[in-house]
Amino acid sequence: MAVGESVQLAPRDPAPDAEYAWRVRSAPVASSLELAEDEAVVQFDPDAAGTYVLELDAPDGTHTLTIRVFPGSYLPAGSVRSGASGMSGMSGYSGQSGSARPTQVSGGASGSGSGADEAQRGDGGRPRIRLDATVEDDVVVVRADPQPNPNSETDRDDLVVEFVVDDRDEVDETAVETDGWELRVPLSAIGDRLRVHAVAIDETYSVPDTVTVERDALTDGGVAETEVEAKSQADGSGAQSASVSRPNDPPKWAQEVTLYEIYVRGYASDDDEADNTFEALEKRLDYLESLGVDCLWLTPVLQNDHAPHGYNIVDFYSIAEDLGTREDYEQFVEAAHDHGMKVLFDLVLNHSARDHPFFEDAYKNPDSDYYDWYEWQDNGEPGTYFDWEFIANFDHRNLDVRRYLLDAVDMWADVADGFRCDMAWAVPDTFWQEIRERVKSKDPEFLLLDETIPYIADFHEGMFDMHFDTTLYFTLRQVGRGDEPAERILDAIDQRAEVGFPDHAAFMLYLENHDETRYIVECGESEAMAAAGALFTLPGVPMVYGGQEIGQRGRRDALAWKHARDDIRDHYERLIEVRDETPALRYNGSFRRIDYEADSDRVVAFVRDHDDGSYLCALNFSDDPVTVDVGDLAVDATDIVSGDSIAAEGGLRVDDVAICPLA
Question: Keywords of this protein's UniProt record, alphabetized (predicted)?
């Protein structure tokens, strides 16, 4: 972090009735920082750059926390984290795309005390970094791949890398050697595990990356079993070995799926024969499998108030009675698994409904045991965002709140494959970090998907695997309405790196959801067909909101299955199929701009590359076909979506979406 940021610190896995106390054990010479005495949850507001070591006295002993703090001049502009769950007083940010977070933009800085002041400065923003590791002759070698910000004038060779060996692991620090972008440590100097973190430093510092090395027993062949494309080596003569993993990469399964959001109280409400909603949803699984989706996001299924969307929760431990029982829910999840589908549970941790019994007891009653569970305004009303009248913000400084929510996380993580995390920006970053370690310790392949508007690059630091691509969403809406040229879509993709997201971050691409007007209603049918093509050709993980694929026009209405548009459904089914069959269109496919010409600014073209082949992708948001001239680019004019040749005089004829192999 940097001077100027504030982070909420709390004991992990807390016992609410226990006593905790924080103190500063060591700090930079220039610091006069003191922490609140006898407080279990404190705000850490560093006043000087350097390394801080804090201590936490807890019932099970004294714990230490090491924090590396950069000068305030290194703070990426727009990335200040409050750490205090946003506190409703911060809702002044709410004018920005419906978020209580400031927009993340590039920023400049200088000076670091870590060798960074020797780097050449450019005019760009936040750099990026990737760590990989190998085991070579019984030595762990961690190599960094730093990249300057796309807008930076800094030469890559001038970037500085700062490594940090995780002090929670048993490592002989005297055996650790660093040389520029490389760190080395003998296997004999580590215990069971080594975690190395690093940032790239230019005018500011990157989102950190992490690599983990764990000891392995040798296989019969003398070679270690490895994880996540590990590059361990052993010579077969008893050499030590280890496996290597990259914990900030999204789970392998999540990189390739097509997501599908189900609005639980409308998706199958036409089924009068099912005993409960989950049974009705289960009967739709054959349809979903035939469509080609393989991961389902259910809107909240917990007991809630009168609002059918389910986000105003009154019991975080019980399935909503109008949907079915817990057994019914679990049966649905098992049936989804039998159909080859994962299930995401919609996790709400920022607030409860005002109908929650704890809030009802606390409202206008300072003597209530639950009064301190909530944020309160000076007028006695609960803290909230956007003047939402049916919810109240939790106060995450209260250990009872944290315990209550962590126990709910434990319960539902056991019966889901991942969490879609509601209002992620409104929950303390460090609480998400705790939740991530908690669920990943049980299931490393558990997915954490954040809803954050606008997106925040720091959320890829030990919090979330995948992020709502809110920038692309808004851009696709602007393009669809005709307010921006289609080429702006490429700018939206480039912005990910410009704000500092590492290349390994995953993004969920979407056109609509339960909160938004249907794209086809706002933008038109031709535009909707092209936008569908964008979901399955641009880098990211596509998400379809239930009914989107049949031309549904109502946002949360019961789905009009009897009036489904077969032409639109066939379009989606084919796009899903093509993406599944084409590695260049998926997570590991790269993306590049090309030179092209067309008579309409409603058309955009780009290329996706992979070792298995490269493909030209073209999207046309206008009502009429447009001819696209790609110059000297060698293209096979066969469109793999339609199977037809789209060769035309002067280029390629594009109706809505075309994908052609490069020759």
Answer: Glycosidase, Hydrolase
